[in-house]
Amino acid sequence: MIVLAIDTALENCSVAISDGSDVWHREQAIGRGHAEVLMPAVAAMLGEAGRTAHDLDRIVVTTGPGSFTGLRVGIAAARGLGLAAGVPVVGVSTLAAHAFLAATLRREAGGPPRLILALIPARADELFGQLFSADAESLEPLMVASAEAFTARARELGCDVAGAGAALLGADFAPLHLRAAPSVTALLAFGASLDPASHPPAPVYGKPPDAAPFKGGIARR
Q1: Which helix (H) or strand (E) holds 154?
Q2: Residues in domain Gcp-like (predicted)?
Q3: How many domains does the chain have?
Q4: Are residues 69 and 144 in the same domain?
Q5: Where are the alpha helices (DSSP H) in the chain?
Q6: What is the pLDDT along the chain (221 residues), one digit of tens a residue?
Q7: Which of 120, 121, 164, 166 fits a disulfide with 175 by CB distance 3.0 to 4.6 angstroms?
Q8: Which domain holds residue 124?
Q9: Residues 89 and 100 in one domain
Q10: Model pTM score
């Protein structure tokens, strides 16, 4: 199966392709400007792999939480490519991608399987967090809470922690990784294993965007 993965959820603009044996990938930390960078990056990666969009069997894209604009760019591009190529698009949350990488790292280290609490920073001194099984299956809905609340939860469960937000839990924890943006190769591997019917490419914002649309009225001086 030939799979394309796209991540624009946070500061990275990342693309990866797998044909079942070889993997091509590129992660670029750009902060902003995903709309200008993404499609040239996809075209370059397809060229490097010697493929076209019509060779793809599946497309995987991060769905958030993350940047409001970045998520819209990545999901729109994945949907457009999927429609043009006639292939399914699989959505993977940022936290699920982090949990999958954490589970992989735990297995490679030979450690016992444990629950995984994936965490990334939100706004206003809060974190996005979600609990996953040792195999990166979601066990609870996405939560937004303080670092103190997640610290207490992690201690209660005795779970592994992962993601950039785990750095705020203190010295008692040894995070399996401290990534903010997902690993695009982990996204690629995880998305290839999921059922497209139950993992649609729908955005997960976690919180409303900072900017609110203008609701009308008269501006007065």
Answers
A1: helix 147-157
A2: 31-163
A3: 2
A4: no
A5: 34-49, 68-85, 94-109, 147-157, 184-192
A6: 999 999 999 999 999 999 999 999 999 999 999 999 999 999 999 999 999 999 999 999 999 999 999 999 999 999 999 999 999 999 999 999 999 999 999 999 998 999 999 999 998 889 999 999 999 999 999 999 999 999 999 999 999 999 999 999 988 899 999 999 999 999 999 999 999 999 999 999 876 544 444 344 443 33
A7: 166
A8: 96-169
A9: no
A10: 0.91
